[in-house]
Amino acid sequence: LLFAYCRIFLAVHLACTPPYDTWWDGLCFFTYQGTISWTQGDTKCSADNAMLTSIHSAQENANLNSFAYGGPYDQGRGYWLGLRCNGTSSNFYWEDGTTVDYTNFGVATVACNASTADYHFYMSPSDAKWYNDKDWSWYQRAYVCKKNVRPEDSICEEYDNVPSTKTCVSIYSASKTTTDGEKQCVATGGHLASIHNNTVNDYVRRSAISRNLLDGVLIGLKQSGTNASGLAWNDSTMVDYTNFNKDFPNSALGQCFAMQTGSIAGDWVNVVCDKTTIPFVCTKPAYDFPDVYETSLCPTQNYSDGDMIYSPMFPKVNNKNSCEYLVVGPAGATNVQVEVIFFESNRCCDSLTIYEGVAGDKKIATLAGSTFNGNVYKSTIGPAMRLVYSVQSGAHVRGWQLKVYA
Ligand SMILES: *[C@@H]1O[C@H](CO)[C@@H](O)[C@H](O)[C@H]1NC(C)=O
Ligand SMILES: *[C@@H]1O[C@H](CO)[C@@H](O)[C@H](O)[C@H]1NC(C)=O
Ligand SMILES: *[C@@H]1O[C@H](CO)[C@@H](O)[C@H](O)[C@H]1NC(C)=O
Ligand SMILES: *[C@@H]1O[C@H](CO)[C@@H](O)[C@H](O)[C@H]1NC(C)=O
Ligand SMILES: *[C@@H]1O[C@H](CO)[C@@H](O)[C@H](O)[C@H]1NC(C)=O
Ligand SMILES: CC(=O)N[C@H]1CO[C@H](CO)[C@@H](O)[C@@H]1O
User: Fold this and answer.
1) In CATH, what number does 156-285 get?
2) Which of ligand 3's atoms lies nearest the C-alpha of 197?
3) Taking a C-beta distance cutoff of 8 angstroms, is the pair 117, 59 a contact?
4) Which CATH number is correct for 308-405, 3.40.50.2300, 1.10.510.10, 1.10.10.920, 2.60.120.290?
């Protein structure tokens, strides 16, 4: 049974923001499949608020080996890890500050002392053991980043919540065109910023200033006509607030817009779409987590058009229950569909398999990790599907929410 509450979910939301994915313990991981030096990999992870990964058990080592390897660009050179040697204390340490409570060296004795090199380790693709090079500073390998903080319970995930609003904001310092900025926003579940009042406008301006972005940021407003009547936000929300500089809008200067962060008003001016490259700001609506947890019981009813299906205990973490769900459309319909509204499971250990019909083993899809948000899955041989949620871990993940269309 589900608790009876009804709520409009504002947007598709993500657990780990792509390209990060939940591998185990609700933590977000990312594999870079090109090759890069240890130092560059370390810097790239830091730029994502992550660290080169640490590993704390044989199970985690095996997980990492299976998820990191075999990707399309796997160079077979192994993956940089965050393990190093402190010659002063003669101790190995993890870059992320966690305890070195497990090692899997490929050679019997690996010394760490004042006379050894400042080792940098990688996992080998052939035996999942850890090795190091003397010439680590130039040798290029893939790497794995890990975030030690779960995005659990943040209504904005990795965006920032504008205090006392339901708006999430993320400012990017890299200069992009409107098209590329919008792409990056979409990849993280948002759009180039839409701004609907002074609270949000001022927040964006102050955040930009605090990042030393004084030359303006792209926002998601576009002007199709020559006057203010042809204005639209890229996320399709209503233009119910504007904050133009006094001589604007002026379409002769471009059909896109930037906020002047250097002025206290944070006012808006036209810029040339796809020519002006400056930092940009994304927004998305805050995700409304239900404030009542689902029960941990499996359902006794069938689901049909318009129903939401939630995993047990959603959105409370650490569910251990596996359940089966039947989705049944009207007799004679050609198919039923489910849309993923939210999905967060540990890729290692928890999966949702979608089968054709109310019985049988013809698979439509298997979902695991946190990369399926917004996807739609359809039956093809009749108006029914069976969902089997198999939970081995459940650790620190919230589960999922699907919407049924029949
Ligand atoms: C190395 O160990 C020394 C002595 O314990 C400590 O002072 C220093 O901060 C350590 N360096 C790093 C990078 O952890
Ligand atoms: C460091 O470890 C190596 C390898 O075990 C050893 O040969 C060397 O004597 C050690 N150096 C110090 C200063 O302990
Ligand atoms: C400002 O707009 C946001 C949506 O963009 C809304 O959540 C918030 O409540 C508004 N704040 C005020 C003070 O109107
Ligand atoms: C504003 O532009 C629209 C087309 O974008 C046009 O239909 C309208 O007449 C214009 N209004 C004024 C006051 O210029
Ligand atoms: C669910 O659907 C199946 C297949 O149509 C049917 O046999 C079963 O009785 C239904 N269960 C409920 C509780 O309606
Ligand atoms: C609704 C809308 O304006 N969408 C646009 C957002 O920006 C991208 C990239 O510039 C366009 O392709 C969309 O059409």
Assistant:
1) 3.10.100.10
2) 1
3) no
4) 2.60.120.290
